[in-house]
Amino acid sequence: MPNKAIAVVTGGAGFIGSHAVDVLVSRGYAVRVIDNLSGGREANLRSQATNPDVTAEWRDIRDIAPDDAAFRDASIVLHFAGIGDIVPSIERPSEYMSVNVQGTVQVLEAARQAKIKRFVYAASSSCYGLANVPTREDHPINTKYPYALSKYLGELSALHWFGVYGLSVNVIRIFNAYGTRSRTSGAYGAVFGVFLKQKIAGKPFTVVGDGTQSRDFLYVTDVAEAFVAAAEAQISGQVWNLGAGNPQTVNRLVELLGGAVINIPKRPGEPDCTWADIGKISRDLGWKPKVSFEQGVANVLADIDYWRDAPLWDVSSIASATKTWFAYMDPDRTKEVSERD
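Predicted structure:
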């Protein structure tokens, strides 16, 4: 029996990364996971716990050496590792640059030295800022906060390694991924984790504004499938937007989850709608979303106990956690600073 192709997945114990591991195993790959467990969980890999073809190393991507053994003889790299959330990035910009930019460079160098056949970088749609919708890949870039900047600089680094060194790179800008195994700890952030813990606790959903804002939610298994398709494609140097192409309102999410609502102030700088134009990725990779929003939410509800230990957010704690957002993201403040200078 021939040796299996080897894939390296950074952040492979995390939300999307662990699902990508499942897809790769189903395609016959041996998988090497690198994760420092700052956001991921060993339990996210429980479906592969007894699989000898899946190995894991719990370490920081910034510690990856150019000749790192984890990359030896591998054919593809899916790079998900990094740190997210908007408010902490405003408070700790240096850390975000260190992990999301320099960490990415460490992974790129190891991939280059190992002569990886394909490197796929998990980028963020946050690079567009307040974008026109549906948003195409050629939309102007406008990084509004350090997280967005760090992810975009990581993307530019990946494409630089393609242009200068010939490393075969593709980039996927993720819009609003959701699903099972999403992060349960850390800063106030993604609406699904906040709402699921509130539902478990029997508390009202804290809906920002009037809830008519919409997000291009894409179920995590569809995200993982797209990344593997990008790794196996016979093209490189591409940038693709990834969403469902079918935005859903927060009010629709509340309707599907079921529960009472309390409204909290809308935050400055947040888009009313995110909406990926997925024409390019569909044409290039033959990819299309398979899981409907209704089915995806049902899948999450069936696994709701996963979020039992997540932090419980309420009006007061959210107001405290988002003070930095209001202080730095208010466009009127930016105008005042500009006029004063």
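Summary: DSSP finds twelve helices and 13 strands in the chain.
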